Amino acid sequence: SDLCAQGKVQGQRVFIRSDLNVPLNDAGEITEDTRVRASVPAIEMALKAGAAVMVTSHLGRPTEGAFKPEDSLAPVAQRLGQLLGREVPLIADWVDGVNVAPGQVVMLENCRTNVGEKKNLPALAQKLARLCDIYVNDAFGTAHRAEGTTYGIAEYAKTACAGPLLSAEIDAITKALAAPARPLVAIVAGSKVSTKLTILQSLSSNVDQLIVGGGIANTFMLAAGLNIGKSLAEADLVGDAKAVIDAMAARGADVPIPTDVVVAKTFAADAEATIKRATDVADDDLILDIGPETAARLAEQLKKAGTIVWNGPVGVFEFDAFAHGTETLAQAIAQSPAFSIAGGGDTLAAIAKYGIEDKIGYISTGGGAFLEVLEGKTLPAFEILQKRAAG
Ligand code: 3PG
């Protein structure tokens, strides 16, 4: 096995930190298991190499030292067991020692219930490190957190390295943002500029085209002097939106502003949808999607892109009458020869709705971690592994 690209894995105790923070319904059932499925290759690799395997993750944001039944990874251990085709025992108390034999895999209960995990207390990190010979971080979704199981253990473990999922995510992001085939086109959409302002600012110094959508586009339309009626927007961020447009223009890059939009009088699935020129929006209109002319123009540009980064739907795609823009761009991304990377909950829902999973170059398992990468931030959990690798 090339796990940790190092010699001996056979008989070694391997501690794998995955991100198995999956959504559960009220009955405690997993409603979306992508992260569990994505954790399988690292675990299988370690098992195949004859390691004694421990897997852990956080689930939710529990109170440390106060374990509650709803904090349990039990449904995750069961799902992982189904995927691996073998029993995955769940160990409740494990910080002071784990009994696991070579060729076996156990799941260690929600690591965020351990005292000191969130603050990465050295006393906990040192204990975690003593549990294993090899620490493998495969948790891209938690790589923006410097916690006991994502950072501290990596400092103290005998050997520490990135697992296949974390490596693949970092490779895809590097290919998309650090060394992209150009033109590099980013779609940044969603309800608010405020939650994505740093992403827009960071991308404005790199991308060749910045497609905005949703409430974000409304604020950019305001910045372009257009009336947006009663649409969702942040008037106080119009200056920031202008600055992004100017920064892009100064590089000869472009932020396309919609030339037509789909409006309604109310925010509802059955609201009557009307296509209007962007210059004709009435005071009582709500913009709920980009118009067909805008969507077709953007789709042409996506088909000519070298790299596409996609975060956020450009309209209220949950309502069929306002889904055309998002669907058109999704299909264009699917048909484009560009390398594409997508991430974020709503984006993944759109990808699933249009059935284009196989046509996206890379779908990130990260939520906050993916957004932080787009902001240009470094990921502490990956940095410590690089530091360890450098000696
Ligand atoms: C996520 O769901 O984005 C990750 O699992 C990180 O979770 P956190 O925001 O609770 O650290």
From TrEMBL:
UniProt cross-references to PROSITE patterns, sorted A to Z: PGLYCERATE_KINASE (PS00111)
Sorted keywords for this record are: ATP-binding, Cytoplasm, Glycolysis, Kinase, Nucleotide-binding, Transferase
Annotated metabolic or biological route of this protein: Carbohydrate degradation; glycolysis; pyruvate from D-glyceraldehyde 3-phosphate: step 2/5
The entry's protein name is Phosphoglycerate kinase
The source's domain of life comes to: Bacteria
Q: Which InterPro entries match?
A: Phosphoglycerate_kinase, Phosphoglycerate_kinase_CS, Phosphoglycerate_kinase_N, Phosphoglycerate_kinase_sf
Q: Which PANTHER family match?
A: PHOSPHOGLYCERATE KINASE (PTHR11406), PHOSPHOGLYCERATE KINASE 1, CHLOROPLASTIC-RELATED (PTHR11406:SF23)
The UniProt entry lists the main location of this chain as cytoplasm
Q: Which organism is it from?
A: Comamonas sediminis
Q: Which residues bind ATP?
A: K196, E318, G344, G345, D346, T347
GO molecular function per UniProt: phosphoglycerate kinase activity
- Where is this chain's protein located in or outside the cell? Cytoplasm
**Pfam families tied to this protein:** PGK (PF00162)
The UniProt similarity line reads:
Belongs to the phosphoglycerate kinase family.
**Catalytic function, reaction form:** (2R)-3-phosphoglycerate + ATP = (2R)-3-phospho-glyceroyl phosphate + ADP
Q: Which residues bind substrate?
A: D19, L20, N21, R35, H58, L59, G60, R61, R112, R145
What Enzyme Commission number(s) appear in the record? 2.7.2.3
Subunit info? Monomer.
